[in-house]
Specification:
The protein has 264 residues and is mainly beta. It has two helices and 15 strands. The strands form two sheets. Strands 2, 9, 10, 11, 12, 13, 14 and 15 form an eight-stranded antiparallel β-sheet that branches. Strands 1, 3, 4, 5, 6, 7 and 8 form a seven-stranded mixed β-sheet that branches.
């Protein structure tokens, strides 16, 4: 996964989660689309159905109807790197004058997790420049942040890839062919002990816990500053999120299992 940190972005040393997608609220419009590449596909968390605009620059624009605060974005399952496209996250207070919160010209198919300063505006948009390309997942919102990275013993996303193989061997034991029929990743995150007040009284954490337990997708990074490769577009693996009170109920231990999207 590619991490893009804009100067002034808050809380980038510990675990970061982006589960909100504010494009699923308010009014969303697309500048253009193609047959089989409808704009509405980016509102679906699936990685196989894409938006493909007819021309560039292309925009996916949100009018939230009131002020909206965001500090993170995620782009997953895209092919802009093959044609030299550039992705921009922009905001506006009036719907006509736009400011770029962050941008990136991808060099690989990796999922992109953007971190930028907390910004409040009514209008937000995702913009493609340079070349027409396809994008499946576009998310913007507020990040859930933890004060530290995963505890010792953590296996990061980029070392937890798994492949389901179809192996063809001869009766004599000779290798004839190998074929990967499924790629993915499975890993777990032990956050350790955090202030119990965070898990009990933070609305953002409560929404993430429910989001995770329902099996819905989100962006994860173990530490944008220190372990940028430990990032993924992912969803629940196994049981519900574990939240256990410890230290006289002053703290809470938090852990969860993940399945991660591996680009083709």
């Amino acid at each position: 996964m590619t991490v893009v940190i804009k100067t002034g972005a808050p809380n980038t040393s510990g675990i970061n989660i982006l589960h909100q997608n504010r494009f699923n609220g308010g009014t969303v419009t697309w500048s253009s689309e193609t047959v089989g590449g409808k704009g509405v596909n980016t509102l679906d968390p699936a990685t196989w159905n894409v938006w493909r605009p007819a021309s560039v620059p292309a925009t996916q624009t949100l009018d939230f109807g009131s002020d909206l605060t965001c500090n993170g974005a995620c782009i997953a399952a895209h092919d802009g790197w093959t044609v030299g496209a550039t992705y921009l996250i922009q905001y506006s207070t009036n719907g006509s004058t736009w400011t770029t919160a962050t941008s990136h010209s991808p060099l690989t198919a990796e999922t992109i997790f953007f971190f930028f300063p907390t910004t409040t505006a009514r209008y937000w948009r995702f913009r493609i420049e340079g070349a027409v390309c396809s994008v499946a997942v576009v998310m913007i919102g507020n990040r859930v942040t933890f004060p530290n990275g995963p505890l010792s013993g953590h296996v990061p996303f980029h070392h937890s890839w798994q492949s389901e193989m179809l192996t063809n061997e001869s009766d004599g034991g000779q290798l004839l062919n190998n074929r990967v029929i499924k790629n993915g990743a499975r890993f777990s995150v032990n956050v350790g002990s955090v202030d119990r007040d965070m898990v009990e009284n933070s609305a953002l954490f409560a929404f993430f816990e429910r989001h995770y337990n329902e099996g819905r997708a989100f962006a994860y990074c173990g530490s944008p500053e220190y372990t940028p490769k430990d990032c993924a577009y992912c969803w629940r693996d196994g049981d519900h999120m574990s939240v256990t009170w410890v230290e006289g109920d002053a703290l809470a231990d938090v852990s969860f299992g993940l399945r991660g999207y591996v680009h083709g």
